[in-house]
Amino acid sequence: MSSEACLSCEGIERYLGEEEERVHALRGVSLDIEPGSVHAVVGPSGCGKSSLLYILGLLDLPDAGCVSIESEPVSQLNDDELARRRSKFIGFIFQFHFLMEDFTAQENVMIPMRKLGQLSDGEMLERAAGLLEAVGLGDKLRRPSRHLANNSVWQSPGRWPMIQKSF
Q1: Best label site of 74, 100, 137, 158, fewest CB within 10 Å?
Q2: Phi, psi for 51 (deg, rounded to 5)
Q3: Can you say how many angstroms the Cα of residue 93 is from the centroid of all Cα atoms in its chain?
Q4: What is the distance between the alpha carbons of residues 72 and 74, in angstroms, rounded to a whole number?
């Protein structure tokens, strides 16, 4: 694992199912993700993409191997500590719309900021506006998310990693 990596895994193994249906979903996966980098996990259906993302996102544990955040192993932490690390370091862009319909785009972006509790209301409003501007939605920040066009919803950074402390 690289000392510059913000997220690493080494030798990740994951089995799914029981007995005859048991599948070896991940076989010795190792990777280092450096700060500011962008990655895509691609492959055919059933190849282990979601299993890997769940493990890297601290939502599931590997059967073998190690996940580290900022060079600190996290695979053996208890549920409360995993939840704290997930809240602080991990962000998700979901495949489906997980936006609060009655919240504005700006309010949706502020949800993880409020959870972290590190910014004042004014700082959160300013940061959310800047993030929406950065992805071309600056003119829609006060629009309820239910009124955004589908392509805008897919771009909307509600619960995006860039909102949270960047690696």
Answers
A1: 100
A2: -60, -45
A3: 6
A4: 6
Amino acid identity of 155? Q
pLDDT in tens, 48-72: 888 999 899 898 899 999 999 999 9
153 is written with which tokens?
Answer: 């919803």
Residue with tokens 């501007």: 133
In the structure encoding, which two tokens stand for residue 146, read together? 């239910």
The two structure tokens encoding residue 82: 């995993």
**What domains can you pick out in the chain, each with its CATH number?**
7-89 (3.40.50.300), 91-167 (no CATH)
As a whole number of Å, the CA-based R_g of the chain is 18
Which position has the token pair 């990740």?
A: 12
Burial of residue 26 (CB within 10 Å: 0-12, 13-18, 19+) is: buried
| pTM for this predicted structure | 0.63
Tokens of 155: 């771009």
**Residue from 74, 84, 82, 87 nearest 12 by CA:** 74
List pLDDT tens digits, range 116-152: 788 899 999 998 898 888 777 888 888 887 777 554 4
Q: Cβ distance 129 to 113 under 8 Å?
A: no
